[in-house]
Design goal:
This protein has about 120 residues and is of the alpha/beta class. The protein has one domain: 2,3-Dihydroxybiphenyl 1,2-Dioxygenase, domain 1 (Roll). It contains 2 helices and 8 strands; from the N terminus they run βαββββαβββ. β3 and β4 form a beta hairpin. The protein is globular. It starts with 7 loop residues before the first strand and ends in a 6-residue tail after the last strand.
Length: about 120
């Protein structure tokens, strides 16, 4: 049975990525193996692999299911990392979500299930 998944995104610069994920997103940094980075926050793990190809992160992203999405949005908006087209809103697929771009160009969507609110 499947239990969890770990997104593996692209990193253009290990030092800048460590700074961004720890200072802007509040993740804990765990390891750097020749540019392969591991972070965690609450029950979420995110890995990043090194690349010099700037086009890769622009085509890479992940979706993180969360609780208290409004609070997380306020926190990340204050950090100035919310995507200009990714503001907090209710989506047709019954998720309340917003999006950020990390320092590399990866898009990360954060969403909370709102399907039970209608019932």
């Amino acid at each position: 049975m499947l239990k969890t998944a770990v997104p593996i995104l692209a990193s253009l610069n290990a030092e800048e990525t460590i700074k961004f994920y720890t200072e802007k997103l509040g993740f804990t940094f765990h390891n750097n193996w020749d540019g392969y980075l591991i972070f965690s926050k609450d029950d979420i793990n995110i890995h990043l692999w090194p690349t010099e190809d700037e086009s890769v992160p622009k085509s890479t992203g992940c979706y993180v299911n969360v609780t208290a999405v409004d609070d997380l949005f306020a926190e990340y908006k204050a950090q100035g990392v919310v995507h200009p087209n990714g503001t907090l809103k209710n989506m047709p697929w019954e998720m309340r979500q917003f999006s950020i771009l990390d320092n590399n160009g990866n898009i990360i969507h954060f969403g909370e299930d709102i399907s039970k609110e209608k019932k």
